[in-house]
Every structure is written in C-alpha cells, then in structure tokens.
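Reply to dn_fold:

You asked what the input looked like. This is it:
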Amino acid sequence: MAARPTWQGHLKLSLVTCPVALYTATTSAADVRFHLINPDTHNRIRMVPTDPDAGPVERSHLVRGYEVSKDEYVLFDDADFDKVRLESTKTIAIDKFVDEAEIDRLYWDDPFFVVPEKGAGVEAFAVIRDAMQKQGKVALGQLVLRGKERQLALEVRGKGLVAYTLRAHDEVRDADDYFDEIPKVKADADMVEIAARIIAQKEADFDPTAFKDRYDDALREMIKAKTKGGKGLVDVAEPDDTNVIDLMAALKNSLKGSAGGARKPAAKKPAAKSAPRKKTA
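and this is what came back:
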C-alpha cells in the first residue's frame, strides 16, 4: 500500500483489541492548482511574512495571536499550545452502537479507511467487523487526531471498516434559522403528480464516475491549448430561472421529453453500500 497512514493505534471493543491504521479515504490530487507568477519576469512569487513597520520577518520568529477586541491580541507561542495539547491514547475505543439513520447527515465529515495491521490482530479485527455487520449497527468511538479530539462513526465496508469523523454539535448550524423564512406555499396537486412522474422516469443507480467537474475539465483543456501555443475558452451556459406563470407547461414538456428518451430500467443489481454523506453536505 503506497499511501502512508494518517494514524496508527488500536481498535478496541470491550476486551477485544487489534492494531489498525487509518488512511485518508479521499484525495485532492486531481485538482487543478496554480501558482502566482509575475507576468513581467515569469518568476514565481514567494510569500514573505512582512511587518508593516519592521519589514520582512522570519516565519520561525512569529507567534499566534487571538483578537479579543479591535487591534488587541492575546499572544500564544508553542509552549502555550503544548500545555493544552491532548495526548493521543492511540486507541479507538468503541463505546456505543447506533442505527445509521440516527446520525443526521450534516454531522458526517471526513472518511478514513480502517485497515488491520498484518499479524495476529487480523482475526480480532474480523471478529469486530463481522459482529458489527451481523448487528447492522454503526459504532461510535473517539480518538485524538492531529492534536484534536474527534468523535468517529465506524461502519463495515467490504473486508474493512470506514471511520467518519463527526462534526461537533456547535459546528452545525440550525436549519430552522434559514428555512423558517421560506413562505408556506400549497403546491398544486396536479403539478406535484407530474413532477413525481418525471422523477420516476429519471430513476437510476448511483454512479459516482458519471459526475464530472466541468470547471476543472475546462481548465485542463485551456492548459492544453495554452501549452500548444493556442487559446481555448469553454462556455458553460447557466440554466434560466423557471417562469412561475409557465410552470405547468414546463412540467408537461419535461414529462414529454423524459418519456421520449426514457428506457425501461434494467434489472437492478444489489448495489454496493454507499456512504450516506458527502452523505459532502
């Protein structure tokens, strides 16, 4: 396995313990990244910490400051952070099990693959994994990751486990603060019925490979064109807002269009269990 583990320690369920490693389950390696370049010299710009009075400052000399009021800061150096740094127990202790549906999707955060270390601990890992699968539950535990205590939700996936960090309660905003102002509108029953039929015609299996980032794709095409000395622009048209007056006509036309291109769906194969998040608010 080429990737380096993000964390190494033990997974513990009651008296059953096994050594495991956590690997980041997502990657941003495919993102298009840019550097700042001076167009006159073609030199890459280096960011140098600068004091408005003293000029350039060595980064190693800097400390962090928390603004308590306008232009007033409390200063913190490395020794201060060491005093509150949490010691990692190097153990993910499973303390309870819940139904997946009990965890609001807004709380799911970053996923990690949980892999047993080779050796005698693999059997203990299999016992924990298979027991979780038999009960159909998601395990909850905690660990210290990058100096911060995080709660985890662990679920069975194939031969391994996936651990999702969970956002703290105060990190998730109350939806009512945003949705309460939405006007109450009684939707026309006929329109709802037509919309429901459109949804039924567009039913499909989830295929993550079908999702493309058109912006990144356009950037890559432009990079390719510029590399060859040419110029390339890709326009992406924005959809028009729905005209409320013609909503019924638009629904009927959508239904006709969907019906014309609709195929009888093939018999569905049992889909691999997909993550309910990101199941990526």
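The two ends are 30 Å apart (CA to CA).
Hope that clears it up.
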